[in-house]
Amino acid sequence: MKTIIHKAEDRGFANHGWLQANHSFSFAGWYNPEKVHFGALRVLNDDVIAPKMGFGTHPHDNMEIITIPLKGVLKHRDNMHDEWQPVLPGEVQVMSAGTGVQHSEINGSVDEYLSLFQIWIIPEKQGVAPRYDQKQFDAEARKGKLQLLVSSFDDSDSESLKIHQDARLSRIDLSNGETFTYKLKSNEHGVYVMNISGNADIDDNILETRDAIGISETESFEIHAKDDLELLFIEVPMMNL
């Protein structure tokens, strides 16, 4: 098994006043040649956005973009919709930028900060038609077991959101003392595990809140919860860029 540890404090950080952004991988003005991507995973930003603030209209193309609000109210608008789309904690949003899309994202609250993960995954197909989707996921359904949030259009799972890449995004909540074995879909895949909160022991590595570990070249690995734990798994092909 091959592992790489990314400590929370070693992420790129940008303070824009209205935006506090932590970058797991090189992004915008922060560049680390050792942290450009993990397989097809290109971006994992951990953002906190001030009330009523956000990102004005901007373009994307040929990227699968997944947003997971953790706290607050996200509002999204793009050139596929006339109205603002609210996205709340417990929901997941996916957008295939494909041939090109223009969108805006703002904090929809006047007094509460918005906390979210934004994830970019390199697609397996270029030039697809842009598309948008979102879905609510029940937190009770991931207590002690894996909850699949996002998968490929070719994946047989019918409950998850879909993207143009052989990837799987999942969450699990474990109680102190619980153990869970994660099994990879393919030996050509790797898994980037983001510790949302708590303390985990993975392959004798202790991960604290917002620490991450990239795992590849294995069929499975075991997780031990050192206290109550929330984990995000991003399984992707280990493509060379």
From TrEMBL:
<keyword id="KW-0479">Metal-binding</keyword>
<dbReference type="InterPro" id="IPR014710">
    <property type="entry name" value="RmlC-like_jellyroll"/>
</dbReference>
<keyword id="KW-0408">Iron</keyword>
<dbReference type="Pfam" id="PF17954">
    <property type="entry name" value="Pirin_C_2"/>
</dbReference>
<dbReference type="InterPro" id="IPR011051">
    <property type="entry name" value="RmlC_Cupin_sf"/>
</dbReference>
<feature type="domain" description="Pirin N-terminal">
    <location>
        <begin position="11"/>
        <end position="121"/>
    </location>
</feature>
<comment type="similarity">
    <text>Belongs to the pirin family.</text>
</comment>
<feature type="domain" description="Quercetin 2,3-dioxygenase C-terminal cupin">
    <location>
        <begin position="150"/>
        <end position="236"/>
    </location>
</feature>
<dbReference type="Pfam" id="PF02678">
    <property type="entry name" value="Pirin"/>
</dbReference>
<dbReference type="InterPro" id="IPR003829">
    <property type="entry name" value="Pirin_N_dom"/>
</dbReference>
<feature type="binding site">
    <location>
        <position position="60"/>
    </location>
    <ligand>
        <name>Fe cation</name>
    </ligand>
</feature>
<feature type="binding site">
    <location>
        <position position="105"/>
    </location>
    <ligand>
        <name>Fe cation</name>
    </ligand>
</feature>
<dbReference type="InterPro" id="IPR012093">
    <property type="entry name" value="Pirin"/>
</dbReference>
<feature type="binding site">
    <location>
        <position position="58"/>
    </location>
    <ligand>
        <name>Fe cation</name>
    </ligand>
</feature>
<dbReference type="InterPro" id="IPR041602">
    <property type="entry name" value="Quercetinase_C"/>
</dbReference>
<protein>
    <recommendedName>
        <fullName>Pirin family protein</fullName>
    </recommendedName>
</protein>
<dbReference type="GO" id="GO:0046872">
    <property type="term" value="F:metal ion binding"/>
</dbReference>
<feature type="binding site">
    <location>
        <position position="103"/>
    </location>
    <ligand>
        <name>Fe cation</name>
    </ligand>
</feature>
